[in-house]
Amino acid sequence: MRTAVVVGAGIGGLATAGALARSGWQVTLLERADRVRPGRTALVLWPNGIRALRALGLGDGLDAIGTPLGESGVRRPDGHWLVQPRPVAAHRAPVVVHREDLHDALIAGLGDRLDIRTGVQVDDVRTGGTERPAVTAGRQAFAADLVVAADGTDSAVRARLAPESAVVSSGCTAWRAVIPWYRAPKSLEGRPAGGETLGAGYRFVAASLGERGSSGASTRGGVYWVATAAGAPRPEPPATQLTLLRRWYAGWPEPIADLLEATEPDDLVQQEVRELRPLPRSYAFAAGPGGVVLLGDAAHAMPHHLGQGACLAFEDAATLAAAVRDATPGLALRRAIEGYDRERRPRAATMVRQTRRMSAVLQTRGRLALRARDAALGQITPRLLGSAASTAAQWRPPA
Q1: Which of 14, 97, 286, 310 could disulfide-link to 106, CB 3.0 to 4.6 Å?
Q2: What pLDDT score was predicted for residue 83?
Q3: What are the residue boundaries of the FAD-binding domain, all occurrences included (predicted)?
C-alpha cells in the first residue's frame, strides 16, 4: 500500500491529506499543536481556489458555507472611488467563508485511511539514498513513500531542504476579526458591508458572512474585516491595539468606524505579515521510492494583499493529488512529484510578483513619494488589481 506523511494540519495539509486518503493512500497527518484547531476569523476564496476545492471533491461542502462577495469597489480614505462597485459574474465571484466552517468541511472529507497524530513537533527530514523519506520529531521517525511539508511559513522541513529561502517581514501587520450579526452596526442595514479602502500604508477590507437575522450561507454569520498597517506587530494587549486601530482609521469612509466600534478585544487576531525571499529553488526532493514536496505557505508564503494564500495552497493540493493519483512508489512516483514541481513553481512565482507589486503600492513612504503615489493611485490600483485577478482566474485544475 502506498503511504504518505503530511506535516501540518492547516487548511492545505487537511485538503492534501484528505485527497490522498480518498485515492487509496495510507496517510499519517502530523500536527504540532495538541489538537487540530480551526482559525477564528474568515477568508476569501477566489475562483481559482474554488475550482481547486471542487477538483478535490469538496465543492458540495463549499456551496453550503460560502457567501458570494457580490459588488465590491475600492476607495481612498477621503471616500473617492478608485474602482467603482460593479456586479461580478457568478462564475468569477469570490466567496467568503468562516475558517471554522471550512475546517469542518475539510475534516469531513478526510476519509478512513488516515491517522492523525497531534503534539508532534517535526524538527528534521531525511532524504537521499534508497530509503524512504522520513521526518523526525525528537526520537520519533515517520517514514513514507511520500512526505508532504504543509507546515506553514516557519516550516522545519523547508528549512532543511531549501535553506536558501528565508522568512522575512513584509513590513506590515494585519488585524482580523469577525463581528457576529447581533453586534454588527445598525448602519449596515440595507447596505453591503463589503468593500476595500486604500491609504498611505493602511488598508481596510470588509465582507459579509451570510445575511443579518439568519446564518445565511454561513453557519457562523457576521461581518469579516481585515485592517493592514505598515510597521511591526504591536506588543500591547488587544484592547489597546483596538484603540489604536480606531485612531488610525478615524475619518475613513463608513462603515469602517462603526465596524471597529462594534469589535471587541476578544474578536481581534493580530498577525505579522511575512514572506519567503527568495522562493525555494525546488518544491520536490526525490528520495528512495518517492520524495518530499513543499505545499502552501511552506512553499510560497507571501503577503495577504491579493488574498491568494489559501487559494494557492488548494491549487497545490489539487495538483499534487492529480499527479500522484495513479503513481506507484518508484520511478513513477518520483516523476510525479517532479511534475508537481514543474507545475507549481512558475505559478507561485507569478502570484508572488503580483503580490509584491501591491505591497509596494500600499507601503509607499516619504512625502514626495506619497504625493506621486496618490496622484497616480487612481490609474495604478485598478490596473494592478485587474491584472492580479486575471492571473488568479486563469488557473484550471489538472485533467
Answers
A1: 14
A2: 74
A3: 4-162, 259-355
Domain's final residue, options 274, 309, 344? 274
44: which DSSP letter? E
Write the DSSP symbol of residue 296.
T
Sole residue written with cell 500500500: 1
Split into its structural domains, the chain has a count of: 2
Report the SS3 class of residue 365: coil
Measured distance CA(35)–CA(4) in Å, rounded: 20
Identify whether residues 48 and 145 lie together within a single domain.
yes
Q: Are residues 256 and 221 in the same domain?
A: yes
- pLDDT computed for residue 216 by the predictor: 43
Does any domain span residue 378? no
Dihedral sign from CA coordinates of 94, 100, 105, 106: positive
Query: DSSP of 21-59, one letter per residue?
Result: HHTT-EEEEEESSSS----SSEEEE-HHHHHHHHHTT-H
Q: C-alpha cell of 111? A: 476519509
Contact 377, 198 (CB under 8 A): yes
CA 237/CA 87 separation, integer angstroms: 40
Low-confidence ranges of the chain (pLDDT < 50): 215-218, 370, 373
Tell whether 183 and 262 lie within a shared domain. Answer: yes
The conformational region for residue 152 under phi > 0 = left, psi -120 to 50 = alpha, else beta, is left
pLDDT at 48: 94
- Residue 192 has which C-alpha cell? 453591503
Asked whether 45 and 97 are in contact (CB, 8 A), the reply is yes
pLDDT digits (tens, 9 = 90+) for 227-265: 999 999 999 999 999 999 999 999 999 899 999 999 999
pTM of the model: 0.93
Residue 345's alpha-carbon distances to 42, 78, 179, 193, 203, in angstroms, are: 27, 40, 37, 36, 29
Instruction: Indicate whether 260 belongs to any domain.
Output: yes
- Dihedrals φ, ψ of 213, to 5°? 95, -10
177 and 264 share one domain: yes
CA distance 65 to 68: 10
Domain stops at, among 274, 305, 322: 274
The whole-number pLDDT of residue 360 equals: 73
Cβ atoms 194, 72 nearer than 8 A: yes
Task: Report the CATH number at residue 308.
Answer: 3.50.50.60
The three three-digit cell numbers of residue 267, written as one number = 474578536
Residue numbers of the domain that contains 306: 3-70+98-168+275-372+383-393
**Do both 363 and 300 map to the same domain?**
yes
Do 363 and 171 touch, CB atoms closer than 8 A? yes
